[in-house]
C-alpha cells in the first residue's frame, strides 16, 4: 500500500479507534481473502483484519465467536471493534488487542526458547478446547451446523478424480460412525499453526473463521492429525500423548473423551486434509490461481493416502 492509501487507512483507524494518533502501521502476512495489519493507537498495540476488496462475504459470525471465547476464558485476542457491518475502512473488518508470541510450528517444536512451553502445551490445548466446547452456541447468532462427512464427499465427487483410498475411507467412516454425544461450538481448525505460543506456553488461539456447530471431538481429532504434528513424535500436535490431552480435557468437563471417537475424527481429519490438498492443487492446475505453493500441496495427497492406509489397517487388526 503506497502513499495516500496508507494515509487513508491511518485516518480511518483513527476514527474507528477514537485515537489521537495511529503509528507503526505495518502490513503482516495474510490469506487470500483478508489483509492483516498491526498498528498502535495512542501507544497501545492492536491488529486489524480487513476483507480484501472484491472478496465475497465478510466476517459473518467470527467476531461474535471471538468475543464469546474471550468471555469464557479461552486464550484468544480480545475483540476491540467488530466492524463486520461497518464501512469506515471500506470493507468489513475487526480489530483485536495484539498478543505476543510465535505461530510457526517448526520453531515451537524445536527452538530452545520454547522448552518450557512444550512441556505444558498439550495440557493447555486440552483445557482450552474444553472451555471452548462449554460455550452456549445458541448465544452466538448466525452460527450454523456443518456436516463434515457430507461436505467432503461432495467436494471429492465434484473434483472428479478417482482416489480409491479416500473412497474406502468414507465407507469405513460411515460404517463406524459414532453417535454424537453433543453439538457445540467447534473451532474448526484447531491445530498447531493456528495457535500463538510464548515462552510459558499457549498465549492465543487464532483463525476462527471456520467456527461452527459440531461434535466437540472434531477439534481434538483434527489436533491429532499427523500433518499437524509437523514432524513431532507425539500425536497431540506433535507434543503430547492422547492420554495427556484427554486428561486435561476431562479436568474441565468431568468427562474423559472416548479414544475411539477421537480416533474416528482423526481419520476423518486426515481424509479431509487429503481432499483439501487435491482441491488446492486443482486451483493451480485449472489456472484459477497459479502458485508454486498450491502445486506443492498437491503432492501431499499421497501422504494422506498412506496415513489413512496405516490408520485403517490399525483399526481392523
Task: Provide a quick synopsis of the model.
The chain is of the alpha+beta class and 317 residues long. Helix content is 45%, strand content 15%. The chain is built from 11 helices and 9 strands.
Helix and strand arrangement:
Elements: H1 3-17, E1 22-28, E2 34-41, E3 44-51, H2 62-71, E4 79-83, E5 93-97, H3 105-110, H4 115-133, H5 148-159, H6 164-175, E6 184-186, E7 195-198, E8 201-205, E9 212-214, H7 217-223, H8 242-253, H9 259-285, H10 292-298, H11 301-316
Antiparallel strand pairs: 1-2, 2-3, 3-5, 4-5, 6-9, 7-8
**Uncertain stretches of 5 or more adjacent residues:** none
User: Strand-residue fraction?
Assistant: 15-25%
CATH superfamily of the largest domain: Aminoglycoside phosphotransferase (APH), C-terminal lobe
Please tally the β strands and state the result: 9
CATH class of the largest domain: Alpha Beta
CATH architecture designation of the largest domain? Alpha-Beta Complex
CATH fold name of the largest domain:
Aminoglycoside 3'-phosphotransferase, Chain: A, domain 2
Question: What is the makeup of the main sheet?
Answer: 5 strands, antiparallel
Percentage of helical residues?
A: 40-55%
Residue-averaged pLDDT, rounded? 92
Tell me the count of domains. Answer: 2
Shape: globular
Radius of gyration: 20 Å
Q: How far is the N terminus from the C terminus? A: 58 Å
Kindly name the structural category. alpha+beta
Helical element count?
A: 11
- Main-sheet strand order equals 1-2-3-5-4
Instruction: Sketch the topology as an H/E string, one letter per element.
Output: HEEEHEEHHHHEEEEHHHHH
Amino acid at each position: 500500500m503506497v502513499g495516500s492509501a496508507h494515509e487513508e487507512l491511518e485516518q480511518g483507524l483513527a476514527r474507528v479507534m477514537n485515537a489521537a494518533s495511529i503509528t507503526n502501521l505495518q502490513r503482516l502476512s495474510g490469506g487470500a481473502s483478508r489483509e492483516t495489519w498491526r498498528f498502535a493507537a495512542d501507544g497501545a498495540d492492536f491488529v486489524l483484519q480487513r476483507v480484501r476488496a472484491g472478496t465475497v462475504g465478510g466476517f459473518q459470525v467470527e467476531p461474535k465467536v471471538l468475543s464469546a471465547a474471550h468471555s469464557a476464558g479461552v486464550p484468544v485476542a480480545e475483540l476491540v471493534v467488530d466492524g463486520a457491518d461497518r464501512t469506515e475502512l471500506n470493507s468489513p473488518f475487526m480489530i483485536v488487542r495484539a498478543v505476543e508470541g510465535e505461530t510457526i510450528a517448526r520453531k515451537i517444536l524445536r527452538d530452545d526458547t520454547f522448552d518450557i512451553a512444550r512441556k505444558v502445551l498439550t495440557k493447555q490445548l486440552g483445557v482450552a478446547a474444553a472451555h471452548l466446547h462449554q460455550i452456549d452456541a445458541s448465544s452466538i447468532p448466525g452460527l450454523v451446523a456443518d456436516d463434515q462427512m457430507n461436505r467432503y464427499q461432495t467436494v471429492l465427487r465434484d473434483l472428479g478424480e478417482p482416489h480409491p483410498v479416500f473412497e474406502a475411507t468414507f465407507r469405513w467412516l460411515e460404517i463406524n460412525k459414532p453417535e454424537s454425544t453433543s453439538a457445540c461450538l467447534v473451532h474448526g481448525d484447531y491445530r498447531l499453526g493456528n495457535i500463538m505460543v510464548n515462552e510459558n506456553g499457549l498465549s492465543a488461539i487464532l483463525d476462527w473463521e471456520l467456527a461452527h456447530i459440531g461434535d466437540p471431538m472434531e477439534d481434538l481429532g483434527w489436533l491429532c492429525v499427523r500433518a499437524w504434528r509437523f514432524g513431532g513424535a507425539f500425536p497431540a500436535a506433535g507434543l503430547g500423548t492422547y492420554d495427556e490431552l484427554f486428561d486435561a480435557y476431562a479436568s474441565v468437563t468431568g468427562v474423559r473423551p472416548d479414544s475411539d471417537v477421537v480416533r474416528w475424527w482423526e481419520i476423518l481429519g486426515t481424509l479431509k486434509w487429503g481432499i483439501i490438498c487435491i482441491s488446492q492443487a486443482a486451483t493451480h492446475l485449472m489456472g484459477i490461481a497459479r502458485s508454486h505453493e498450491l502445486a506443492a500441496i498437491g503432492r501431499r495427497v499421497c501422504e494422506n493416502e498412506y496415513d489413512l492406509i496405516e490408520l485403517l489397517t490399525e483399526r481392523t487388526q
